[in-house]
Amino acid sequence: MLKRFFILCSGADEDLLSSCSEGEQTKYVGIGATVFFTAIMAFIASSYALFTVFDSIYPSVSFGIVWAFLIFNLDRFIVSTIRKRDRLWNEFLQATPRIILAMIIAIVISKPLEIKIFEKEINTVLLKEKNQLAMANKKQVSDYFKSDLEKNKSEIDSLKSQLSKKEKEVNTYYETYISEAEGTAGTKKLGKGPVFKEKIAKHDLAKKELDTLQKTNLVKIAEKEKKAKILQADLDKKITETQPIIDSFDGLMARINALGKLPWLPSFFIMLLFLAIETSPIIAKMLSPKGEYDYKLEDNETALKTHIEQNNHQRNLQKQTDASIYDKIYADIKEEKDLYEYKKKGAIELLKLQSDSYVEKQKSVM
Hints:
- Keywords: Coiled coil, Membrane, Transmembrane, Transmembrane helix.
- The chain is mostly helical.
- It folds into 3 domains: 2-118 and 262-290, no CATH class; 131-252; 308-365, no CATH class.
- Helices cover 89% and strands 0% of the residues.
- Helix 5 packs antiparallel against helix 9 and helix 6 runs antiparallel to helix 7.
- The two termini are 92 Å apart.
Protein backbone atom coordinates (compact mmCIF):
# COMPACT_ATOMS: atom_id res chain seq x y z
CA MET A 1 0.00 0.00 0.00
CA LEU A 2 2.75 2.45 1.00
CA LYS A 3 4.79 1.43 -2.04
CA ARG A 4 1.89 2.18 -4.40
CA PHE A 5 1.35 5.56 -2.69
CA PHE A 6 4.98 6.64 -3.12
CA ILE A 7 4.93 5.48 -6.76
CA LEU A 8 1.85 7.66 -7.22
CA CYS A 9 3.77 10.56 -5.63
CA SER A 10 6.64 10.06 -8.10
CA GLY A 11 4.34 10.67 -11.08
CA ALA A 12 5.39 7.44 -12.77
CA ASP A 13 3.06 5.27 -14.86
CA GLU A 14 2.02 2.64 -12.32
CA ASP A 15 0.98 0.03 -14.92
CA LEU A 16 4.18 0.47 -16.88
CA LEU A 17 6.36 0.48 -13.75
CA SER A 18 4.71 -2.71 -12.43
CA SER A 19 6.16 -4.59 -15.40
CA CYS A 20 9.70 -3.45 -14.46
CA SER A 21 12.15 -4.98 -12.00
CA GLU A 22 12.03 -4.45 -8.24
CA GLY A 23 15.14 -2.26 -8.35
CA GLU A 24 13.51 0.07 -10.87
CA GLN A 25 10.37 0.27 -8.74
CA THR A 26 12.43 0.98 -5.62
CA LYS A 27 14.09 3.92 -7.38
CA TYR A 28 10.74 5.56 -8.08
CA VAL A 29 9.48 4.74 -4.59
CA GLY A 30 12.43 6.76 -3.24
CA ILE A 31 11.69 9.64 -5.62
CA GLY A 32 8.02 9.64 -4.59
CA ALA A 33 8.90 9.56 -0.88
CA THR A 34 11.16 12.59 -1.35
CA VAL A 35 8.34 14.47 -3.10
CA PHE A 36 5.90 13.54 -0.32
CA PHE A 37 8.13 14.54 2.60
CA THR A 38 9.03 17.80 0.86
CA ALA A 39 5.31 18.60 0.81
CA ILE A 40 5.09 17.75 4.53
CA MET A 41 7.92 20.17 5.29
CA ALA A 42 6.20 22.79 3.12
CA PHE A 43 3.05 22.32 5.22
CA ILE A 44 4.95 22.83 8.49
CA ALA A 45 6.85 25.86 7.18
CA SER A 46 3.84 27.64 5.67
CA SER A 47 1.63 26.92 8.69
CA TYR A 48 4.19 28.44 11.04
CA ALA A 49 4.73 31.42 8.74
CA LEU A 50 1.00 32.11 8.58
CA PHE A 51 0.64 31.60 12.34
CA THR A 52 3.04 34.51 12.90
CA VAL A 53 0.72 36.62 10.72
CA PHE A 54 -2.78 35.59 11.90
CA ASP A 55 -1.99 34.39 15.46
CA SER A 56 -4.64 31.72 14.87
CA ILE A 57 -4.11 28.03 14.22
CA TYR A 58 -7.14 27.40 11.98
CA PRO A 59 -6.39 29.73 9.03
CA SER A 60 -2.70 28.87 9.34
CA VAL A 61 -3.31 25.11 9.08
CA SER A 62 -5.88 25.58 6.28
CA PHE A 63 -3.50 27.64 4.16
CA GLY A 64 -0.65 25.25 5.06
CA ILE A 65 -2.62 22.33 3.61
CA VAL A 66 -3.31 24.25 0.38
CA TRP A 67 0.36 25.26 0.11
CA ALA A 68 1.52 21.66 0.75
CA PHE A 69 -0.72 20.34 -2.03
CA LEU A 70 0.58 23.06 -4.36
CA ILE A 71 4.22 22.16 -3.63
CA PHE A 72 3.42 18.45 -3.92
CA ASN A 73 1.78 18.96 -7.32
CA LEU A 74 4.68 21.11 -8.58
CA ASP A 75 7.34 18.63 -7.44
CA ARG A 76 5.41 15.72 -8.90
CA PHE A 77 5.03 17.56 -12.19
CA ILE A 78 8.73 18.50 -12.27
CA VAL A 79 9.92 14.93 -11.64
CA SER A 80 7.42 13.25 -13.98
CA THR A 81 8.19 15.55 -16.94
CA ILE A 82 11.96 14.98 -16.94
CA ARG A 83 12.95 12.49 -19.64
CA LYS A 84 16.23 10.61 -19.81
CA ARG A 85 18.41 11.62 -22.76
CA ASP A 86 21.44 10.08 -24.38
CA ARG A 87 23.60 12.98 -23.14
CA LEU A 88 23.74 14.41 -19.62
CA TRP A 89 24.10 17.97 -21.00
CA ASN A 90 20.79 17.66 -22.84
CA GLU A 91 19.15 16.42 -19.66
CA PHE A 92 20.62 19.35 -17.73
CA LEU A 93 19.28 21.88 -20.25
CA GLN A 94 15.90 20.21 -20.07
CA ALA A 95 15.91 20.28 -16.27
CA THR A 96 17.31 23.84 -15.83
CA PRO A 97 13.92 25.63 -15.58
CA ARG A 98 12.71 22.94 -13.19
CA ILE A 99 15.86 23.23 -11.06
CA ILE A 100 15.37 27.02 -10.85
CA LEU A 101 11.76 26.48 -9.78
CA ALA A 102 12.91 23.92 -7.20
CA MET A 103 15.42 26.45 -5.82
CA ILE A 104 12.69 29.07 -5.42
CA ILE A 105 10.46 26.54 -3.66
CA ALA A 106 13.33 25.50 -1.36
CA ILE A 107 14.00 29.12 -0.33
CA VAL A 108 10.30 29.74 0.33
CA ILE A 109 10.04 26.56 2.43
CA SER A 110 13.25 27.05 4.41
CA LYS A 111 12.76 30.67 5.50
CA PRO A 112 9.87 30.10 7.99
CA LEU A 113 11.64 27.08 9.47
CA GLU A 114 14.81 29.11 9.88
CA ILE A 115 12.74 31.65 11.80
CA LYS A 116 11.45 28.88 14.08
CA ILE A 117 14.88 27.28 14.58
CA PHE A 118 16.49 30.62 15.52
CA GLU A 119 13.44 31.84 17.44
CA LYS A 120 15.31 32.60 20.69
CA GLU A 121 18.03 34.58 18.91
CA ILE A 122 15.39 36.43 16.85
CA ASN A 123 13.46 37.27 20.04
CA THR A 124 16.63 38.80 21.49
CA VAL A 125 17.09 40.98 18.41
CA LEU A 126 13.41 41.96 18.46
CA LEU A 127 13.63 42.84 22.17
CA LYS A 128 16.50 45.25 21.47
CA GLU A 129 14.59 46.78 18.57
CA LYS A 130 11.43 47.11 20.69
CA ASN A 131 13.39 48.87 23.43
CA GLN A 132 14.87 51.26 20.88
CA LEU A 133 11.43 51.89 19.42
CA ALA A 134 9.98 52.47 22.89
CA MET A 135 12.72 54.99 23.72
CA ALA A 136 12.32 56.72 20.37
CA ASN A 137 8.54 56.82 20.82
CA LYS A 138 8.87 58.22 24.33
CA LYS A 139 11.26 60.91 23.08
CA GLN A 140 8.95 61.77 20.17
CA VAL A 141 5.89 62.06 22.45
CA SER A 142 7.92 64.03 25.02
CA ASP A 143 9.09 66.42 22.30
CA TYR A 144 5.46 66.90 21.31
CA PHE A 145 4.53 68.00 24.87
CA LYS A 146 7.91 69.58 25.60
CA SER A 147 7.01 73.15 24.67
CA ASP A 148 3.85 73.18 26.79
CA LEU A 149 5.60 71.57 29.76
CA GLU A 150 8.58 73.91 29.58
CA LYS A 151 6.37 76.98 29.18
CA ASN A 152 4.28 75.94 32.16
CA LYS A 153 7.39 75.19 34.24
CA SER A 154 8.97 78.55 33.36
CA GLU A 155 5.78 80.33 34.43
CA ILE A 156 5.79 78.47 37.77
CA ASP A 157 9.48 79.29 38.27
CA SER A 158 8.77 82.95 37.47
CA LEU A 159 5.97 83.11 40.04
CA LYS A 160 8.14 81.39 42.66
CA SER A 161 11.00 83.74 41.81
CA GLN A 162 8.78 86.75 42.43
CA LEU A 163 7.81 85.37 45.82
CA SER A 164 11.41 84.56 46.69
CA LYS A 165 12.55 88.02 45.65
CA LYS A 166 9.83 89.71 47.71
CA GLU A 167 10.63 87.48 50.72
CA LYS A 168 14.29 88.47 50.50
CA GLU A 169 13.25 92.12 50.32
CA VAL A 170 11.07 91.75 53.45
CA ASN A 171 13.83 89.90 55.28
CA THR A 172 16.29 92.62 54.34
CA TYR A 173 13.94 95.33 55.73
CA TYR A 174 13.47 93.24 58.85
CA GLU A 175 17.21 92.93 59.47
CA THR A 176 17.66 96.64 58.78
CA TYR A 177 15.11 97.88 61.29
CA ILE A 178 16.24 95.36 63.91
CA SER A 179 19.85 96.50 63.47
CA GLU A 180 18.69 100.12 63.73
CA ALA A 181 16.84 99.39 66.95
CA GLU A 182 19.83 97.59 68.44
CA GLY A 183 22.22 100.32 67.29
CA THR A 184 24.45 97.92 65.40
CA ALA A 185 23.89 99.57 62.00
CA GLY A 186 22.43 102.69 60.42
CA THR A 187 22.60 105.58 62.88
CA LYS A 188 24.08 103.20 65.49
CA LYS A 189 21.83 104.73 68.16
CA LEU A 190 20.08 102.34 70.49
CA GLY A 191 16.32 102.72 70.56
CA LYS A 192 13.35 103.30 68.28
CA GLY A 193 13.99 106.65 66.75
CA PRO A 194 12.65 108.32 63.60
CA VAL A 195 14.93 106.27 61.34
CA PHE A 196 13.72 103.09 62.99
CA LYS A 197 10.11 104.09 62.42
CA GLU A 198 10.85 104.84 58.76
CA LYS A 199 12.52 101.50 58.23
CA ILE A 200 9.84 99.49 60.02
CA ALA A 201 7.24 101.26 57.89
CA LYS A 202 9.05 100.11 54.76
CA HIS A 203 9.16 96.59 56.18
CA ASP A 204 5.46 96.60 56.96
CA LEU A 205 4.64 97.84 53.45
CA ALA A 206 6.84 95.17 51.85
CA LYS A 207 5.23 92.55 54.14
CA LYS A 208 1.77 93.57 52.96
CA GLU A 209 2.93 93.40 49.36
CA LEU A 210 4.39 89.95 50.07
CA ASP A 211 1.11 88.76 51.59
CA THR A 212 -0.84 90.02 48.58
CA LEU A 213 1.68 88.49 46.18
CA GLN A 214 1.55 85.17 48.03
CA LYS A 215 -2.23 85.03 47.77
CA THR A 216 -2.23 85.67 44.03
CA ASN A 217 0.93 83.76 43.10
CA LEU A 218 0.19 80.67 45.21
CA VAL A 219 -3.18 80.35 43.47
CA LYS A 220 -1.52 80.73 40.09
CA ILE A 221 1.22 78.25 41.07
CA ALA A 222 -1.41 75.72 42.15
CA GLU A 223 -3.20 76.11 38.81
CA LYS A 224 0.06 75.77 36.89
CA GLU A 225 1.07 72.68 38.86
CA LYS A 226 -2.35 71.16 38.20
CA LYS A 227 -1.92 71.90 34.51
CA ALA A 228 1.57 70.33 34.63
CA LYS A 229 0.08 67.16 36.13
CA ILE A 230 -2.56 67.06 33.38
CA LEU A 231 0.11 67.51 30.68
CA GLN A 232 2.24 64.80 32.26
CA ALA A 233 -0.80 62.50 32.47
CA ASP A 234 -1.54 63.12 28.77
CA LEU A 235 2.09 62.38 27.94
CA ASP A 236 2.02 59.13 29.94
CA LYS A 237 -1.33 58.17 28.38
CA LYS A 238 0.02 58.74 24.87
CA ILE A 239 3.05 56.58 25.61
CA THR A 240 0.82 53.88 27.13
CA GLU A 241 -1.50 53.90 24.11
CA THR A 242 1.36 53.48 21.62
CA GLN A 243 3.20 50.82 23.63
CA PRO A 244 0.95 47.89 22.47
CA ILE A 245 1.83 48.74 18.86
CA ILE A 246 5.51 48.44 19.72
CA ASP A 247 4.89 45.25 21.72
CA SER A 248 3.20 43.67 18.66
CA PHE A 249 6.26 44.39 16.52
CA ASP A 250 7.06 40.72 16.00
CA GLY A 251 5.30 39.80 12.76
CA LEU A 252 6.68 37.82 9.85
CA MET A 253 8.50 40.72 8.18
CA ALA A 254 10.02 41.84 11.50
CA ARG A 255 11.28 38.31 12.16
CA ILE A 256 12.71 37.99 8.65
CA ASN A 257 14.58 41.30 9.12
CA ALA A 258 15.77 40.15 12.54
CA LEU A 259 16.98 36.88 11.00
CA GLY A 260 18.98 38.92 8.49
CA LYS A 261 20.83 40.61 11.36
CA LEU A 262 22.05 37.26 12.71
CA PRO A 263 25.20 35.52 11.36
CA TRP A 264 24.39 34.36 7.83
CA LEU A 265 26.31 31.06 7.79
CA PRO A 266 23.92 28.86 9.87
CA SER A 267 20.92 30.18 7.97
CA PHE A 268 22.73 29.60 4.68
CA PHE A 269 23.44 25.95 5.50
CA ILE A 270 19.81 25.35 6.47
CA MET A 271 18.73 26.81 3.14
CA LEU A 272 21.26 24.53 1.39
CA LEU A 273 19.75 21.56 3.23
CA PHE A 274 16.27 22.36 1.94
CA LEU A 275 17.68 23.07 -1.48
CA ALA A 276 19.28 19.64 -1.52
CA ILE A 277 16.02 18.01 -0.39
CA GLU A 278 13.94 19.87 -2.96
CA THR A 279 16.28 19.19 -5.89
CA SER A 280 17.22 15.64 -4.85
CA PRO A 281 14.48 13.92 -6.96
CA ILE A 282 15.60 15.86 -10.03
CA ILE A 283 19.32 15.31 -9.40
CA ALA A 284 18.76 11.62 -8.64
CA LYS A 285 16.84 11.14 -11.85
CA MET A 286 19.48 12.99 -13.88
CA LEU A 287 22.42 11.08 -12.39
CA SER A 288 20.81 7.66 -12.49
CA PRO A 289 21.45 5.61 -15.64
CA LYS A 290 18.69 5.10 -18.15
CA GLY A 291 16.62 2.32 -16.65
CA GLU A 292 14.08 -0.22 -17.75
CA TYR A 293 11.17 2.12 -17.09
CA ASP A 294 12.76 4.88 -19.19
CA TYR A 295 13.26 2.50 -22.14
CA LYS A 296 9.70 1.23 -21.96
CA LEU A 297 8.30 4.73 -21.63
CA GLU A 298 10.38 5.89 -24.58
CA ASP A 299 9.20 2.85 -26.57
CA ASN A 300 5.54 3.65 -25.86
CA GLU A 301 5.97 7.33 -26.71
CA THR A 302 7.90 6.48 -29.91
CA ALA A 303 5.26 3.96 -30.95
CA LEU A 304 2.48 6.49 -30.40
CA LYS A 305 4.42 9.18 -32.23
CA THR A 306 5.07 6.82 -35.18
CA HIS A 307 1.41 5.79 -35.28
CA ILE A 308 0.26 9.42 -35.35
CA GLU A 309 2.79 10.32 -38.05
CA GLN A 310 1.63 7.35 -40.18
CA ASN A 311 -2.02 8.35 -39.79
CA ASN A 312 -1.22 11.93 -40.79
CA HIS A 313 0.75 10.72 -43.79
CA GLN A 314 -2.09 8.44 -44.88
CA ARG A 315 -4.60 11.27 -44.55
CA ASN A 316 -2.42 13.52 -46.71
CA LEU A 317 -2.07 10.79 -49.37
CA GLN A 318 -5.82 10.16 -49.31
CA LYS A 319 -6.47 13.88 -49.69
CA GLN A 320 -4.10 14.17 -52.65
CA THR A 321 -5.56 11.03 -54.29
CA ASP A 322 -9.16 12.22 -53.86
CA ALA A 323 -8.26 15.62 -55.30
CA SER A 324 -6.67 14.02 -58.37
CA ILE A 325 -9.70 11.73 -58.91
CA TYR A 326 -12.21 14.59 -58.65
CA ASP A 327 -10.13 16.76 -60.99
CA LYS A 328 -10.24 13.97 -63.61
CA ILE A 329 -13.98 13.34 -63.10
CA TYR A 330 -14.89 17.02 -63.54
CA ALA A 331 -12.62 17.28 -66.57
CA ASP A 332 -14.50 14.36 -68.20
CA ILE A 333 -17.94 15.79 -67.26
CA LYS A 334 -16.98 19.13 -68.79
CA GLU A 335 -17.21 17.61 -72.30
CA GLU A 336 -20.69 16.04 -71.80
CA LYS A 337 -23.26 17.73 -74.15
CA ASP A 338 -26.37 16.53 -72.26
CA LEU A 339 -25.10 18.11 -69.08
CA TYR A 340 -24.45 21.35 -70.96
CA GLU A 341 -28.00 21.47 -72.36
CA TYR A 342 -29.49 20.72 -68.95
CA LYS A 343 -27.55 23.55 -67.24
CA LYS A 344 -28.42 25.92 -70.16
CA LYS A 345 -32.13 25.21 -69.73
CA GLY A 346 -31.96 25.92 -66.01
CA ALA A 347 -30.06 29.17 -66.60
CA ILE A 348 -32.69 30.39 -69.12
CA GLU A 349 -35.51 29.70 -66.65
CA LEU A 350 -33.65 31.56 -63.93
CA LEU A 351 -33.11 34.60 -66.19
CA LYS A 352 -36.81 34.68 -67.10
CA LEU A 353 -37.84 34.61 -63.45
CA GLN A 354 -35.43 37.44 -62.63
CA SER A 355 -36.78 39.53 -65.52
CA ASP A 356 -40.44 39.03 -64.53
CA SER A 357 -39.64 39.91 -60.90
CA TYR A 358 -37.91 43.14 -61.97
CA VAL A 359 -40.89 44.21 -64.11
CA GLU A 360 -43.35 43.59 -61.25
CA LYS A 361 -41.21 45.60 -58.85
CA GLN A 362 -41.06 48.59 -61.27
CA LYS A 363 -44.86 48.54 -61.68
CA SER A 364 -45.38 48.70 -57.89
CA VAL A 365 -43.08 51.72 -57.65
CA MET A 366 -44.87 53.74 -60.41
